[in-house]
Amino acid sequence: MKKTEKNVRASRSSITRRGLMLGVAQAGIIGVLAMRMRKMQLEQADDYRLLAEGNSVKIRLIPPARGLIYDRNGVLLAGNEQNYRVTITREDAGDVDTVLADLRRLLPVSDDAAADVMTEIRRQPPHAPVTVADRLSWEEFSRVAVNAPALPGVSPEVGLSRNYPHGIDFAHVLGYVGPVSDYDLSQIENPDPLLRIPKFQIGKTGVEAKMEEVLRGRSGQRRVEVNSAGREMRELGRKEGEPGVNLQLTLDTRLQNFAHERLKGESAAAVVMDVTNGDILAITSVPSFDPNLFVRGISSADYRGLMEDDHRPLADKSVQGLYPPGSTYKIVTALAALEAGVIGPEDTVRCPGYIEVGGRRFHCWKHSGHGRVNVIQSLEQSCDVFYYEVAQRVGIDKISEMAKRMGVGVRHDLPMSAVAEGVAPTKAWKQERYGKDWRIGDTINSSIGQGYVLASPLQLAVMVSRLASGKAVTPRLIRSMDGVEVPVPAPEPLGLQEAWLDHVRKGMIAVVNGAHGTAGKAKIVLSEWKMAGKTGTSQVRNISAAERARGVISNSQLPWERRDHALFVCFAPADNPKYAVSLIVEHGSGGSTTAAPIARDILLFALNDGLPPLEAYPSSQRKAVQSRFDALDLVDPDTVGTGAKSRA
């Protein structure tokens, strides 16, 4: 009896515990359901109301602000401006033809533009918006916005578009942006979803292209309510993206502008470098073009005009252009001969006006010859025969090795388009390139920067900077990123004896300041800014023996495209080098007459940090210099930040 009562009590206790556990579980489930119902009814009520009303929620990408580009002094070179545009989305528009026709009653959309829009709509996925018109005025934009409820799938939007306030001055360096093309997408393994936004702009050339990933930034998102007719009703949420990185270049706006203006009218290029750290202060190619035309959509007529211009405005001659460096290359040959020990600083070579090798006569530019000249005199007077002779002693391979040590025949790593490598030829190079043996005549031609030798103005600027500093300085274009300085490693010594470098420097000083210097008319008379330089004139045509016999035709009598190129390289101050300049004028005839005066003006502007004082010029030239400066359209130093110009 007692056992039975005990079992009953135990059974009742067990049932009570099970009931309690079941009750707790039921309460928990009811609590979860209640919380879920509360969230659905209160927190997510709007979303479910949208579904009940036939509306939907869509995610739209927000393009980030593209990073800005500044010069070394904080002057804006590439910025963003507000852009009013109108897009249409096929899946929301329904009858696209009707909607587009209605839209054209509000906006001036041409037949060709409308046809392009329809082509793009058919090409893009149904959910992708397609730009119908951009860069609208506020009146046009407002007209569409007011009528948006009657235009399903049409969205008036405010975005950003690239703007280059200094236009042609920086076109080749900065490049430009443009809409993403199918080709662009094909070159990227996993394209950023941003790139599929219609007419989203990416860098096409120059710094804009080379630094695209850091300039682009990261997209944001916005949640929008879209009704059954495809119209956006309201914005439900927004997450801003990350703007692109701001870049500061090493360039100086005023110096760049001056160099560009000074070269105007020529087909030319110039580079200015700081010899102490490799900073590029100016790098210009003329003629140029307005990059804003490409951003906004260049017309066929404008593009055809650029393509048909024989001065090639679209080509960046400063880094892409490869030219025979002419006598500027004698710097390399002289250093190679001194290092190899085939000639000493005071050793001389007799120049009778030519030498004969293998039954062929190689002429000096001076028909009567220079007599006996040493290294300094050979540079001062630019004697060709001296270099014909020493090049045979040293050999082409050692000359090529010296050229590369000095920066010629080397592709320098700059964020610019199509930076060329150049050619510092060797015996193996010719065999590999042409399947032919190297000849002694090839060495003779190469010794004076002709034949197979090719260099860009950038490489020649590096060559002179290394000679002036005695160190292996490398060119630099990016100074900082988002305010963080890009570190510059201390340049290593060139490994050449200072005596050899100094001897070549003295030869360059004599070129400008010596009694027989080839660039005497480009002298700087202020002693604290004394300039060292080297002229160069490179032939673009062969002169036959028959022509030499009857008299070589002067450049002035030849068509422009058959005239010699004019080159000049220089640095200053001669006794404490700070800046180096290299300059080429295509078909400019003579380095001493055409290139040297321009390079001197640019170098003086850099030294003076502004328009050069007339006291720096010989008195006989000051009136002409002043007249030349008066004709330049220079950036106003007081308004340089705005890109404004005024006569100076």
Key descriptive features of the protein:
7-stranded mixed β-sheet, serine-type D-Ala-D-Ala carboxypeptidase activity, Beta-lactamase, 19% strand, 24 helices, 5-stranded antiparallel β-sheet, alpha+beta, Penicillin-binding protein 2a (Domain 2), 648 residues, disordered C terminus, 23 strands
Structural class: alpha+beta
Number of helices: 24
Number of extended strands: 23
Q: Any idea what the radius of gyration is? A: 35 Å
Low-confidence stretches: 50-54, 643-648
Mean pLDDT across residues: 88
DSSP helix fraction: 25-40%
Chain oligomer state = single chain
Protein name: Penicillin-binding protein 2
GO molecular function, one term: peptidoglycan L,D-transpeptidase activity
Domain Penicillin-binding protein dimerisation: 62-235
Pfam families: PBP_dimer, Transpeptidase
